[in-house]
Structure formats: C-alpha cells, structure tokens
Design goal:
The structure is a homotetramer.
Chain A (H helix, E strand, L loop, with lengths): L11 H14 L12 H7 L4 H13 L3 E4 L3 E4 L5 H24 L4 H9 L5
Antiparallel strand pairs in A: 1-2
Helix pairs in contact in A: 1-3, 2-3
The structure holds a DNA duplex.
Chain lengths: ~120, ~120, ~120, ~120
DNA sequence: GTGGTCTAGACCACA
DNA sequence: GTGGTCTAGACCACT
C-alpha cells in the first residue's frame, strides 16, 4: 500500500504523511473511514511505530485526520477546493521544474512526448 | 545562480550538490573551471559556509570536483556517458512518478499536454 | 569523572577520548561495560553532545568501543599488549620531554625527587 | 633550533610561541637580542611565514618581545619572578598529572626513579 | 530514553 | 583571500 524510499533524505514520517494525504485527496480512503492501526501499518511497511504515530499526529494537526481515543485514526471530511490548490501549488511547479531539468539535459519535446505516450493516464 | 528551497526537508547541502551536478553535466560550468569560493557562494545564497563546503566535499568524493588547498574547487573532467544514465535513473523515474500522482489527482493526458505546451523546450 | 581543560588548545573531543582510553586500559571501565550515554556525559562535563559523540565515534573507529544503536556505547575487548606500547610511546617520551624542560628552567634532580616524594604511587 | 609536532592538535603558532617563550626564560636568547627574521625562521622550520608572524605577534602582545619596524623582533627584558610562577603553574601540575597517569598504568615509583636516572639533569 | 545527522559560527593553516 | 576543523544546538529514527 505504501512505499517509503529508504535512501531519501526526506524524513520517513514526512514521506508517509504525504502519501496518506494523496490517498485522501484521491479518495482511495474516504471521509470518516478508519486508517490502519499504528501497529498494523508499522508492521506492514516495516518501520518503527513511533514514526507512523508521528505521521498520523502531524496529519491530525493539519486537519486531515481526527482520532478517537482507544479506537483509532479516521479521515476528516475534506475541502475539495484544496485539490485544485495542491495541483497548482505542488504538482504543476514540480512538473515545470522537471521539464526545466530535462531541457538542461538536452532532451527535446519529442522525447518527452514519447515518455508521456508510455503512461496510461486517461 | 542557485536557488535552495528553505522549506524542503531535503538537506540544503544535498540540494546544492544536485544543482551543481546538473550545471556540470549541462556544461554551464566546464571541466577545470573554478567554482565560486566556499565563502563567496555561502554569502550569495545566504547559507553557512560549512554547508557549502559539505556540498563541495561530497561532490569531490563522488569525483565531480577536485580541490586545491588555498586556491579553490574545480570541476573534474567528466564521463559524458553518465548523462544518459542520469536521464534513465533520475529524470525518467521522477517523471513517471509525477505522472502517476497527476493521475491520482484526476488529471487527464490532455491537461498534461497543455502544461507541456506552455514550456519552451526545443 | 572526567575533567577537560577549557583553556587548552587541544580539542575537547581529543582530550576526552584520551581520558576514556586511559580508563579502559586501566580497567576502570571493563570490556563490554556500558559507557555513560552521550547526553548524560555531555551534561555532566558541560559540553555539547556532539563533542562527546565525536570522542566516542573516534574511539569506535580505533576499535576501543563498539556501539549499539538506541542502546549505547560499550567497551570493546582490548589487547593488553597495547599497554606496554602506550607506556613506551606516550608516557615515557612525555616524561623525558618534561624533564628536559625542567632542566631548562634550572631545576635540579633533587627538586624533582622532592616532587616525586609528594606523590603516592606504590 | 625548533621542532614542531606536525601531528599535534595544538596550533603551530602556539607550539612555536611556547618554545620561544621557554628559550627566553632559559636565557638561550637574552634580553634585547634579535630573533631570526620571520622569513628566515619560516624557511628553517618549514612553515608558512604567516604562522611565524602570528607567534611573534602574540608574544609581542604578551610582552615577551618588542618589534622595531624595518629591523625585526627583539626579546623584551623579563621579570625573573615569572620563572618561579611558570614552574609552579605549568611544570609542576604537568608533572603531577603525568605521574597520576603513570599510576593508572600500573607503574611503580621504582620504575619512575629508573627513568629519572636515565636523564642527565644536574 | 538511545545514537545519528544537519546547520551554524569561530578559528586555524596556507597562497 | 583560500580550504579545513572544532564546537554547538536542533531534529530524526529507533528501543
């Protein structure tokens, strides 16, 4: 379900939180749905429970989750406007930065289009 | 010349090293050309000299730079084959990962193509 | 337990490492015995945890200690032959250098013997 | 004339200054006698002129030397009382510390006396 | 709580 | 002026 990059310099709790956030926006996990327990998830992705705890806790502080003592963590209802924002503020800039790098490496638009063709999207 | 993302969880020295590596591959800085001194660069991008040094030092260990004490850091002659490798190992996977995320967010190929159109590349 | 000379130009981490090494040779701390935690020791001798860590790390590289992540640093089994070597290579030369200086300052053997008398040794 | 320890963590300018100070106290170099020029000395002991300069400068600040522009550095008249002080404050404590270490290493007074016998002192 | 890493500022040795 | 080292504080991952 989740894949953390061991090598990355980005903290694991941050990687995990980002992935969860994506799943929420994308509605793979829906509002008021229960997340896996800290212990279960930590076992599944082979990291320390404390780290999972930190991800959940951070998402709770940011309003993406809420917790019920003794029961677990649940997805909070989300503001759908945020999706547009995230696309504009995160996805798009990252895309342009990547294309800029591709340009530096001497890639042509044609080659990028070829890559794009290889992906199923619609 | 360089722009570091203060917010990013990726260490500054790592961000900087990556940017320098790109400039070397792209031949904005050529072999045996001198890099800005540690202090000059640290002042310019407003970070601690130590952090710049760590970037330079890492690149030296990886063979991208060589240093002369009391004189400065210089670009080492590079193996151009590595460019192909970096495109395959870094750029392409990052591109696909990004498209995957875009898909999750419900973006269509058409929208991506629109973004692509906005970029000067060829 | 340890006393660092703040004034000395010798790095603190070096002073500390030397003192620890002595304690190990002298078996004040025995093989596989746990050292104080980095933070406990740093608090005790009022220096930055990083400095203690550097001492421990250096001793680990030299084979005097081994570490277990999340548990602590431990004394490695030592080769007792090294004691003789250290006496010959460190203690004795230092002693002779000191006597040489004493001579320059016009001290006589008698005065040195007087100093020696003041120390409990046997 | 001087011997610096390349390995030592003590700064070279400090090592040199200490040695010069000793020679002054011990009257190997007398009051108002001229010291070797910075360039000559730096060549002799194979270190950078700047480093010698720093030693001389420090000794001047501490009152052990005075300089005459265009001529060189000279030994200042010294207060002989300082010799006693240096013996008490430097030599003696260092001696006791060394004996303490010797004790830790299991050396007996007899062995120290044997060492002492090997040195010409009187 | 444990060890490990990143950023930072001051100082050293050298050209 | 150059690169290199030492000390320091905050944060990460894990027991």
């Amino acid at each position: 379900m989740f894949r953390l990059d061991e090598q990355s310099k980005i903290p694991k709790y941050e990687q995990l939180a980002e992935e969860i956030k994506d799943l929420i926006f994308v509605k793979v996990i829906n509002s008021n749905e229960k997340l896996p327990s800290i212990r279960a998830l930590s076992k599944e992705i082979m990291i320390n429970p404390n780290t999972v705890q930190k991800s959940y806790h951070q998402l709770e502080n940011q309003g993406y989750l809420y917790s019920i003592k003794g029961k677990g963590y649940y997805v909070a209802p989300i503001d759908m406007n945020q999706i547009e924002q995230r696309i504009e503020n995160e996805l798009k800039p990252e895309f342009f930065r990547l294309l800029q790098r591709a340009k530096h490496f001497g890639l042509s638009k044609k080659e990028i289009l070829e890559w794009l063709r290889q992906v199923e999207l619609d």
